[in-house]
Fold this sequence. Notes:
By secondary structure, the chain is an all-alpha fold. Helix content is about 75%, strand content about 0%. Helix 2 (about 40-65) packs parallel to helix 4 (about 100-130). The two termini are about 15 Å apart.
Amino acid sequence: MEQRKTQQPSAAFVAASWVALFAGVIAFNIGLWNAEMALNEKGYYFTVLMFGLFGAVSVQKSVRDQMEGIPVTGIYYALSWFSTLLPVLLLTIGLWNADLTRSEKGFYAMSFVLSVFAAIAVQKNTRDAKMKRPEDNWER
Length: 140
């Protein structure tokens, strides 16, 4: 399979990706800290966020591996997508049934989406930067 040339991400995009990731995660957690809900509910939402971040990074890695001709097993690829879509479903169900105002529900949904998107961008930038440094290239 043909190797694609990757362009080095700009410093501005790398910084914006990290700022977006921290903004989303910190905002989500500040919202949880200040929320008037039981500790087990806060733990549920925190776990959903962390699971979503992991799943998004895993999907990005497996899709990128396939694009670059690196073998990815079908089970890992499917589990990556499952680990991305399940937290979205769990967050949706949790917010649908939560005793929160619409603005609070929207806040959690948007900070979750921002965090997941930013995690994908940070993973992409990290991988692109690593591919440009021959001393760090794992595919010699």
